[in-house]
Every structure is written in C-alpha cells, then in structure tokens.
C-alpha cells in the first residue's frame, strides 16, 4: 500500500467514523479516540465493571480502577513508580495527571540520581477537575473534590474540597447519596469558593 | 492486511506526511493532527468562514464558532450540557477546555445525581491562554483576555483581563483595531501583570 | 480498502501493539504514541544523542534539544516566533507548553495586529513540571526547577526553584551531581514548598 493510498484510506475511515459518532452521540472526536472503544480498553486493562478510558490516555505500570469510574482524554496514570489505586464512581476529568515518581533530582544531577518514587491512592466517589496534577505519594481519601487546574501534593482526608496551585482545603462534603452537598470554609473568599 | 503490514504502512505514511509538513510549514505534528486538515474539519462542524480546529480537539453537542477563530490542539469544547457559542477572531490556545456541565455531585453521590448543566458563551475577539479551563455557565463578553493556566468560573464583562486559579480581573482592554492595548489594575503586583 | 476493512486493520494493529508494549514495558499508550518510536522522531528532528519526544508532541519552527533530554506526551514546542534552545538532560514533563509568540493583540484587534514574537532558551539540567506553560521571550538558566501547573513569564536565573500562576521563586538548588539538593526560601509557606 503506497503512502498516498494509505492516506486516502485513513481520510475515508476518519470521515465515516465521524459521521457515525455525529449521528449516534452528537460528538466529534480526535481520530484515535473516535476509532477505539473506551470500555473495551478498560476491560483489557483489568479495570472494574463499567469503567472507561479514552484512547488518548496513558497507563504505565500497576494501575487498578474501580467500577463505573470515568477516565477522560489526555489523562496520565503513571503507576510505574509504585502503583496507583483508584476507587469506584470517580471522575478523572480530561487532562488529569497522576504520578508515582518525579525526575527533579534526575534532571538536576545530569542523570546521576534515579527518579523518586511513591505509590498513590484515590478513594471512592472522588472528583478530580480538568488538568489537575496529583504528585507522587499522595493519598486522596473517599468523597474528595479537587477543582480544575490544581496541583495536589499533600494527602487529603475524607470529604475534603481542595483547590489551587498548590491545592489547599477550601471546604468539605456533607451528606450521602442524593442529599450530598458542598460546604465551603467561612474564611474562603467568594472567588475561591467559586472554584466549584 | 496483517498487523505487521499495517504497521509498516502507517510508519511510511507518517514519514511521508512529516517530510511534507517540514518542507511546507517547518513543523512536525502528532500523527493525526498532521494527517487531517483543520479547516476542512471546521467546515464539516459548521463553523464560520476561516475557522480552524486541530484533529486532537474534542467537540461535543451544540457548538457554534465564528469566522477566523483559531482552535488549537487538545482543546475540549464540551457543549453537551447546553451549548457553547464562540464569536469571531478568537484564539482558543492549545489545551483550553470549555465545559457546559460538571460531574462533581455525580461522583460524590455514587452516580445518583445527574451532572449539573449550563450553557457557555464567549464573545468576539477573545483570547484564552493555553490550558485554561472555562467552567459551565460562564459568559465571557467581547474582547476579554484570559492568561494561561487560569480557571474561569465567573462571568467576565467586556474588555476584562483575567488570570489565575481561580481567575480574577487584573486589568482591562482599551482602544480598537490597531490601537488596542492592555491596561493593568494599579493594585496588581508586577508578577500578576506579567501573566500576559 | 473500504472504511470498514481499514477500521478492522487499525483495531488489529492497535491490539497487537498494545500487547507488545504491555509485555515489554508494562504500559498502555495512546494509538500513535504506541505506534511510532520517540527516539527515532528525535533523531529526524535533529535533536542530540539520547533525546526522545512522544508522537503526541508538536514541534514548530526552529527548535534545538540537547542530549538525553526527555520530552513527554502532549508537549508543545512552538519555536515559530524566534526559536527555542533547550539544553541537555532536561525533563519536559507531559503537557508542558513552550511558546515564542502570543496572539493576544491579534485576537483583540480582529486580526489587524500580528502575533508578538520572542525566542526562548532553557539551559541544561532543567526540570519543568507537568502542564506548565513557558511564555514567549523567557530565558530559563541551568539547573532550574519549575513546579507542575505553573505559568512562567519572567526570566529565571541559574538554580532557581519557581512555582505558581504566575510562577515566582520559592527556593534554589545547591550542590552538584549526586549531592544536588533543593533549598526552600524561609518565607515560603509549607504549602508552597510542598510544590515539589
């Protein structure tokens, strides 16, 4: 197959798939996210029932994911440095990065010091907003909420709402099931509580 | 076609396209962003004349885009929760995310509460810096500027300059056309005005 | 080749490559990042020995990269506005964006003002955390460290640790090679020093 024939074939399958996705789901996806099923990929990765993960996400090393958890496009789950445990019914928004190592001292030492490593755990029913970064070693307990574009470097106890660069607690979660609600700290400015 | 033959064919078309893009535009793109035309995709999506959108961007639901607006790689336009209106001559930098829903209470309730939804509008001549996130329900008026890595949760009136996580106003825009200019608030620190 | 045959062939090569990567490296990559070699791409781009760059990264214009430097997925190196010089043994984490232009005034003027442009330089042994953005014109000297989700708009002298939106200095780097270490400013809050 010549490169030119291949290019035409790719163009045709892209257009055909785009039309299908538009008709069925009213959406237009990047080439590979549209081509490959995200529930099937989650099954092949051993994730629990109902979990899904976009093609454009990366998964390194030992990563477990609970039932119904949604993992968006451009997500990084780098469990190569000690494993990542993620609970059920979590929402890992588009562009969330979770790490179990960093290469700060590797770079500064000109490659002489190995990456630092530590496992990460994320409980059940956790929401992580778009493009937030979770650093190596962090433990996020059940029912936490992290606002978009945050950098989380410290452990978060159950039901914490955290936001910012670096992320700090700005409130907590009360109630269960359909009566669950967000409660913001009194000393939080209006502009901070608006993170959610 | 065997997987091995397919892999060689993909490799060949990738190298051929890479060489073309290098010669014509002095650039090297990801596989699919290089393979598919971004003005053609914008036309198929019904965007106005001269608009363009990279293959690696996602478009969900009802999204309208005005003339000459530039939409970069890894952009998320999730209009599934109420629609997104974007004006003309806007710049949506690489990695910008625009949402019309959030799944915070969906996750916390173990899937019992539906995502919250609200439409988003972005006026004409708006600049949104790289990897900024625009939350559901936000209205950004004409000629606003949003710095990179910001999280916008509140409406922004015409000609506002906003920055940060969460984004707050740090100045305004004066003039028109070739005499347009940025004016920063007096109480803004040097480090904040340097966001632009 | 019909679109349906093409789709099956893509599915098969994706599954075959996924199984190979799982067995050899214990990882699962996005379609194109898994299909194409990142050391070979770095060579074609003229980067120095041992450098690597994921398929999903963009490289525009004049970009030079030193030996052993690691460039992750979804990285933007836009050297179209004046060139980017990156030293050796740097770590440009996933989602880092480096720009040599901005289109703020282009958008505000309705396309009448051309993008502003300025070259960027990044020294040797520099660490840039995930999803940080480096603005046009910035010079980052040797052995600097930039925390995740930062926005860097000012020059950073040798051995600076910087963090935040906008990024500000929060410490410095002492020592060499295996005895290199991070020293945080005394006035830095615990939550800020935890950025690393």
Oligomer state of the chains in this structure: homotrimer
Element-level helix/strand string of chain A: HEHHEEEEEEEHEEEEEEEEEEH
Helix content of chain A: 10-25%
- The total of helices of chain A stands at 5
Number of strands of chain A: 18
Largest interface comes to: A-B, 56 and 54 residues
Average the pLDDT over all residues of chain A and give the rounded result.
Answer: 95
Going across the major beta sheet of chain A, what is the strand order?
2-4-6-11-14-16-17-18
Content-based structural category of chain A: alpha/beta
Unreliable stretches of chain A (pLDDT < 50, length at least 5) are none
Radius of gyration of chain A: 19 Å
Gross morphology of chain A: globular
Largest sheet of chain A: 8 strands, mixed
Instruction: Calculate the terminal CA-CA distance of chain A, rounded to whole Å.
Output: 51 Å
- The percentage of residues in β strands of chain A lies in 25-35%
């Amino acid at each position: 197959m010549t490169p030119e024939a291949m290019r035409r074939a790719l163009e045709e399958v892209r257009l055909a798939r785009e039309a299908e996705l538009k008709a069925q789901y009213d959406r237009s996806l990047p080439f590979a996210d549209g081509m490959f099923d995200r529930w099937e990929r989650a099954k092949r990765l051993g994730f629990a029932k109902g979990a899904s993960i976009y093609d454009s996400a990366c998964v390194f090393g030992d990563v477990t994911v609970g039932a119904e958890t949604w993992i968006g496009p451009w997500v990084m789950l780098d469990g190569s440095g000690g494993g990542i445990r993620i609970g059920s019914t979590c929402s890992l928004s588009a562009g969330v990065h979770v790490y179990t190592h960093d290469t700060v001292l590797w770079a500064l030492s000109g490659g002489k010091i190995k990456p630092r490593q530590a496992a990460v755990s994320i409980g059940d029913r956790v929401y992580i907003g778009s493009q937030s970064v979770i650093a190596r070693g962090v433990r996020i307990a059940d029912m936490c909420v992290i606002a978009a574009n945050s950098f989380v470097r410290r452990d978060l106890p159950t039901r914490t709402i955290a936001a910012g660069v670096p992320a700090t607690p700005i409130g907590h979660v009360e109630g269960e099931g359909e009566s669950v609600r967000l409660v913001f700290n009194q000393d939080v400015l209006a502009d901070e509580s608006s993170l959610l």
